[in-house]
Structure formats: structure tokens, C-alpha cells
Design brief:
disordered N terminus, single chain, Arc Repressor Mutant, subunit A, two-stranded antiparallel sheet, globular, mainly alpha, 2 strands
């Protein structure tokens, strides 16, 4: 199942920011316009870290790895 923007609580992640007027105020990787949730969805669709980095060359593998790790640890459990 793919992530929904509301599923991950990005609070406390220093790698992301939410700026009013920047990408409609959605959570992006700090200093970019890359949606954090898009990286998570790419990984869930089976993209490797290297493939994700090819699509977003401004991000290091370490940053991508840390974002995905944070997202995995902060996923909100939705009621079934």
C-alpha cells in the first residue's frame, strides 16, 4: 500500500521543512522542492536508493537513507 501524505509524521526531522507558499506548504526535503512523501512512495514502489538518487541527484544516498529510515519509524498507524 502506498503512503498517503497524512500517514507520516515528519515532526522533528531536521532533513525536511514545510514553508508556506513553497510547494503548497507540503513537506519537502530541506532546501529543495522535492516532496518527502514522493521519496517514500518511490521506495515503496521498489526503487532502490541508487534509482531514487538518479531521479534526485541533488540528494546524497545518506540523506535518502536517513529520510526513509525516519519515515519508517514515524508512520502513523491508521485504524482499519
Amino acid at each position: 500500500m502506498l503512503s498517503d501524505a497524512g500517514e507520516i509524521d515528519w515532526t522533528g526531522c531536521e532533513l525536511v521543512e514545510r514553508v508556506s507558499g513553497k510547494v503548497s506548504g507540503r513537506v519537502v526535503v530541506r532546501g529543495t522542492r522535492i516532496l518527502a512523501d514522493t521519496l517514500v512512495q518511490d521506495a515503496e514502489l521498489g526503487s532502490s536508493l541508487e534509482e531514487i538518487q538518479e531521479n534526485y541527484p541533488d540528494l546524497s544516498l545518506a540523506t535518502i537513507r536517513r529520510l526513509l529510515s525516519f519515515a519508517g519509524s514515524r508512520r502513523k498507524h491508521l485504524a482499519s
